[in-house]
UniProtKB/TrEMBL annotation:
<dbReference type="GO" id="GO:0005739">
    <property type="term" value="C:mitochondrion"/>
</dbReference>
<dbReference type="InterPro" id="IPR051935">
    <property type="entry name" value="HSDL2"/>
</dbReference>
<dbReference type="GO" id="GO:0005777">
    <property type="term" value="C:peroxisome"/>
</dbReference>
<keyword id="KW-0560">Oxidoreductase</keyword>
<keyword id="KW-0521">NADP</keyword>
<keyword id="KW-0576">Peroxisome</keyword>
<keyword id="KW-0496">Mitochondrion</keyword>
<dbReference type="InterPro" id="IPR003033">
    <property type="entry name" value="SCP2_sterol-bd_dom"/>
</dbReference>
<dbReference type="InterPro" id="IPR036291">
    <property type="entry name" value="NAD(P)-bd_dom_sf"/>
</dbReference>
<dbReference type="InterPro" id="IPR002347">
    <property type="entry name" value="SDR_fam"/>
</dbReference>
<dbReference type="Pfam" id="PF00106">
    <property type="entry name" value="adh_short"/>
</dbReference>
<feature type="domain" description="SCP2">
    <location>
        <begin position="323"/>
        <end position="412"/>
    </location>
</feature>
<comment type="similarity">
    <text>Belongs to the short-chain dehydrogenases/reductases (SDR) family.</text>
</comment>
<dbReference type="GO" id="GO:0016491">
    <property type="term" value="F:oxidoreductase activity"/>
</dbReference>
<dbReference type="InterPro" id="IPR036527">
    <property type="entry name" value="SCP2_sterol-bd_dom_sf"/>
</dbReference>
<protein>
    <recommendedName>
        <fullName>Hydroxysteroid dehydrogenase-like protein 2</fullName>
    </recommendedName>
</protein>
<dbReference type="Pfam" id="PF02036">
    <property type="entry name" value="SCP2"/>
</dbReference>
Length: 419
């Protein structure tokens, strides 16, 4: 229940066998390393056997780290979309370590796209990995978990918040993550008294390779380290099996356990953190459903964002700040559908000639369409509101090329000094 640097007096997971999906990197590996310090056995059930061109780590490099930390490792090539690979790894785990005490369903796929923009293969991937993979891995492990003295299943999935804002921008992804949570709801009741089944979710964004991909360079300053989830998971997995059916938020649990200093988990202590998906953030989310939301926000501003002025002035300054290098490096047309004062359709053309901005439809087909309030638009282009924060809190809707949308965030960093 204390930060991962703290020398635990009791090695509570010594000799326990953990089967962790997606444990070759990120959150899965952090949970594995935490347990390894107690002398646990770790089954690394993940896809990456050969080095990935852009992602760090393989099941074998993770195994080396786990053994260096004091645990025993069994690397297994497992794509959770393939039931035969799951069953084979479970059998190998039982043969090697004599059983399975803990299952961590960590493997997950993500695509933050709207219904019409989500390719069928992406829908299949998210449903297969997140829902079906979690269900089938649980099913394969349960006969062995039932033989353990203190068995646990832990799914990395959120509390089921039915606020429509969590569905409208990425319906397929939300369905798939809530499917993992429904496994917790059902299996906790089905195996009550035999196996503990719980869900764990971070309060803030966690710095992983996936977050780098979604948020681009610099996003890590707004994130916490994977250590916070490893410490929270350790707390859950060392509780008795009567602790079941819970949807746990990492920070909430750790505060209850006595942790006071959360700066140790920050990538950049003191820097504002992005709240994670599916958790209603401190802003008034009920007001966000109302048509007057943009006006409400403007009234509560202590002073106008200087030197932003109205939307038209912001676009004028953007035009003046553009360079040929911006156009050459971005190669995208951005359309903005703005509500509130100064709203309507606007565009930024960073594809043609020296670039241009204006009111109305863009000169070519938009690669990215962004919908938001005019108040938030001005904040976003003057550095008062991070695009990632706006997107994750439902204040910004993005359609089209997500990679180009991320490029725009990098460009904003360069432009902010001129806006």
């Amino acid at each position: 229940s204390l930060p991962s640097t703290y020398p635990f007096t009791f090695r509570k997971l010594a000799g326990c066998t953990l089967f962790i999906t997606g444990a070759s990197r990120g959150i899965g590996k952090a949970i594995a390393l935490k347990a390894a310090k107690d002398g646990a056995n770790i089954v690394i059930a993940a896809k990456t056997a050969e080095p990935h061109p852009t992602l760090p780590g393989t099941i074998y490099t993770a195994a080396e780290e786990i053994e260096a930390a004091g645990g025993k490792a069994l690397p297994c090539v497992v794509n959770v979309r393939e039931e035969e690979q799951i069953i084979s790894a479970v059998e190998k785990a039982v043969k090697t370590f004599g059983g399975i005490d803990i299952l961590v369903n960590n493997a997950s796929a993500i695509s933050l796209t709207g219904t019409l923009e989500t390719a069928t293969k992406k829908v299949n991937l998210m449903m297969d990995v997140n829902v079906r993979g979690t269900y089938l891995t649980s099913k394969a492990c349960l006969p062995h978990l039932r033989k353990s003295k203190n068995p646990h299943i832990l799914n990395l999935s959120p509390p089921m918040n039915l606020n429509p804002m969590w569905f409208k921008n990425h319906c397929a992804y939300t369905i798939s993550k809530y499917g993992m949570s429904m496994c917790v709801l059902g299996m906790a009741e089905e195996f009550r008294g035999e196996v503990a089944v719980n869900a764990l979710w971070p309060k803030t964004a966690i710095h992983t390779a996936a977050m780098d991909m979604l948020g681009g360079a610099g996003i890590e300053k707004q994130c916490r380290k994977t250590d916070i989830l490893a410490d929270a998971a350790y707390c859950i997995l060392t509780k008795p099996k009567s602790f079941t059916g819970n949807f746990i938020i990492d920070e909430v649990l750790l505060r209850e356990e006595g942790v006071k200093d959360f700066d140790v988990y920050a990538i950049a202590p003191g820097h504002p953190l992005i709240p994670d998906f599916f958790l209603d953030v401190e802003i008034d989310t009920t007001a966000m459903k109302q048509k007057g939301y943009a006006l409400k926000e403007e009234k509560t501003e202590s002073a106008p964002a200087k030197p932003s002025g109205p939307v038209a002035e912001t676009f004028r300054v953007i035009q003046g700040a553009m360079t040929e290098e911006n156009v050459r490096s971005t190669q995208g047309i951005f359309q903005f559908e703005l509500s509130g004062d100064g709203g309507g359709t606007w565009y930024i053309d960073l594809k043609n000639k020296g670039g241009s901005t204006g009111f109305g439809k863009p000169p070519g087909t938009a690669d990215v369409v962004m919908s938001m309030s005019s108040a938030d638009f001005v904040k976003m282009f003057t550095g008062k509101l991070k695009p990632t924060m706006a997107f994750m809190s439902g204040r910004l809707r993005i359609k089209g090329n997500m990679a180009l949308a991320m490029k725009l965030e990098k460009l904003l960093t360069q432009l902010n000094s001129k806006l």
